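Q: Structure tokens for this one, please.
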Amino acid sequence: MGEELAVGEDQLKEDICKVMRNLFNRGLISALGGNVSARIPGSEEFWITPSGIFKGELTAEDLVKLDLEGNILEGFLRPSIEWPFHAAIYKVRPDVNAVVHAHNPFTLGLTLAGVGLKPITVEAVMVLRKVEVVPFAFPGTEELANLVKEKAMAGARAIVLQNHGIVAMGANLYEAEAIAETLEEVAIAQFVAMALGKEPPIIPEREVELYYKLYGIS
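A: Here is the predicted structure, written as tokens:
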């Protein structure tokens, strides 16, 4: 059992690094900004990216393993300062096994302008569902962790951090990555329509409700 867990964690660590490279290549994180964490389902420990290291070329050896109280269990580098809200999410959402924190420029820009993301694409309905926004709080603080935890407890999958970035939560790393990427895709489409002087049509509420009912989504 211990050997199987080790193999699972080795793959998890490689996947975290792959997701970070994907986000960096898409311009959703910067050289030193953004972070990703993941855990084996059911675990009260998680792996997270380090602070102050170039995010485009992370290796499995760079990652840090923490418990839900922030104690370092494995690793030699300093964990991301954002670990408190990652831990807070894992404490209240047993269905979440991966968290992506990125700095989506279009998503953040629309939010700063007071424009909320709308269900204008099928992906917005299927992947994002409802996007929550939390007011500004300094990175790495308990205040920010509590704001994120509150939205996570309410069932959010995607949260915009005012003046900061986004948080995407998934059952696995690639679901969390897909949510982060879909946020930006929807934001770009909405921005383009608005820049051309058009209000983008939304998917009718009745269709959204039918989709949720069909797939048992609450």
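A few notes: The mean pLDDT is 93. The beta strands are 35-38, 45-48, 64-67, 72-74, 98-102, 131-134, 158-161, 165-170.
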